[in-house]
Design goal:
Strand content: 25-35%
Largest sheet: 8 strands, mixed
Oligomer: single chain
Number of helices: 12
Structural class: alpha/beta
CATH superfamily of the largest domain: FAD/NAD(P)-binding domain
CATH topology of the largest domain: FAD/NAD(P)-binding domain
Bound molecules: flavin-adenine dinucleotide
Strand order of the largest sheet: 7-6-15-16-17-14-18-21
Length: 390
């Protein structure tokens, strides 16, 4: 039997869940389908930095009050190079900040709010494909928890199904998108230790890049630059701490047991199209950025805010005017974020073939940014997030 809803959303990550929440507030029903279990979604550690816009949306729409009680506001970051730290003061430069509040906590909040509102949110329901997206009755075909075929007919289908999206192909066809691979990856560790700093440290060193980040008073997240083919299990804990410490010269890290390690590959991708007929893609399904600028989840939120307004106008007001603008509006921000993420990555990482000229030029770039009020303001403005379209 074919089920019916107004918007069928593939993926219960930050993009899909927030979209369902915003649509519900506008009186538009939706069904959200995700291949993973609720527990898997609520325990996967990913993004940690929320832009001020993202926090305001969560707060103002009643999606999360814990962002203010469990999360913490950061008014700056440290750029560390040549053995010394240089603070970029966001509050002083642009009067804005970011929040350290892990993505899985945002997901817990959104899932709780969606279920409390009695919304149709289905876990362990992988979507196989979408069809009829150029008609006004697009369809989603999935396999339910009980193994039975699920078929949903909707007014609109949204692919919020991450970087391996099944909806993307239906939207972009064989054109795919613009793609860039980087010659390095991040080796990430989670450890039980007190924070080594109050704010994030982005460090450029002769041994390569490191990011010293926090998760809670007891758990810390740290990364260092590595080869994309690196096997995460070959290093002892002692070797990992020595490599991390060597990449933040002049700072002292607080060590503790490492309980998770992974290698995170770097890719930049932007889909050629975000919209076709009655289907759109948002979040990581539409783009991926290297994590250096902390933009991935925040871009997903911005896409969803723009799309939710367009769907509200289409489905409640009968006008497709905002939907026709969706791609251009979303892509303008996506490409700015691509540039910022590429710029932070290039300024802070060392490539294997970097010459002494490259290393000295990179230090000069870091000095140009940190010694200039305009340089600090550019970084602060981009990192804390450009305003969302009115
Ligand atoms: C280690 C790491 C650190 C990061 N750090 C940051 C950071 O500091 N700041 C930041 O802003 N971003 C960061 N990011 C990026 C951020 O996590 C992503 O950009 C964000 O998760 C994108 O959200 P999304 O909802 O678009 O996709 P996802 O979170 O990937 O969600 C997609 C969902 O779709 C589901 N799905 C996929 N295929 C199907 C299918 N066929 N059927 C049904 N369901 C399906 C998946 O199970 C998943 O739940 C980081 C990412 C990683 C991996």
């Amino acid at each position: 039997m074919t089920e019916r809803t107004r918007v069928a959303i593939v993926g219960a990550g930050p993009a899909g869940l927030l979209l369902a929440h915003l649509l519900d507030r506008a009186g538009i029903s939706s069904i959200v389908l995700d291949s993973r279990t609720r527990e898997e979604i609520e325990t996967t550690v990913r993004a940690g930095i929320l832009e001020q816009n993202t926090v305001e949306i969560l707060r103002e729409t009643g999606a999360s009050d814990r962002v203010d009680t469990v999360g913490s506001r950061h008014d700056g970051i440290e750029l560390r190079f040549d053995g010394a730290g240089h603070r970029i003061d966001f509050a002083e430069s642009v009067g804005r900040g970011v929040w350290l509040y892990p993505q899985h906590e945002v997901l817990k909040d959104l899932i709780a709010v969606r279920l409390a509102a009695g919304q149709d949110l289905r876990f362990s329901t992988p979507v196989a494909h979408v069809s009829d997206i150029e008609s006004d009755r697009p369809r989603v075909v999935a396999t339910g928890q009980d193994g039975r075929r699920v078929e949903i007919e909707a007014d609109f289908v949204v692919g919020a199904d991450g970087s391996r999206s099944v909806v993307r192909e239906a939207v972009t066809g064989s054109h795919g998108g613009f793609f860039r691979e980087y010659p390095f990856a991040w080796f990430g560790v989670l450890c039980e230790a007190p924070p080594s700093a109050h704010e994030l440290i982005y460090s450029n060193s002769p041994d390569g890049f490191a990011l010293i980040s926090q998760r809670s008073p007891e758990v810390q997240r740290m990364y260092f630059q590595c080869d994309p083919a690196q096997d995460p299990d070959v290093f002892s804990e002692r070797q990992l701490w020595d490599m991390l410490q060597a990449r933040v010269p002049g700072a002292t890290l607080h060590e503790g047991p490492i309980f998770q390690r992974d290698v995170l590959r770097f890719r930049s991708f932007v889909a050629h199209r975000l919209l076709k007929g009655r289907a759109a893609i948002v979040g990581d399904a539409a783009h991926t950025v290297p994590p250096t600028g902390a933009k991935g989840m925040n871009l997903a939120v911005a896409d969803v805010v723009v799309l939710s307004r367009a769907l509200e106008q289409l489905l409640q007001g009968g006008s497709a005017e905002l939907l026709a603008q969706f791609e251009d509006t979303a892509l303008a921000r996506i490409w700015k974020a691509q540039h910022f993420s590429w710029w932070m990555t290039s300024m802070l990482h060392r490539t294997a073939d970097a010459s002494e000229f490259d290393a000295r030029r990179q230090l000069a770039e870091l000095r140009t940014v940190t010694e200039s009020a305009a340089g600090r303001a550019y970084l602060a403005e981009a990192y804390t997030g450009w305003p969302l379209p009115a």
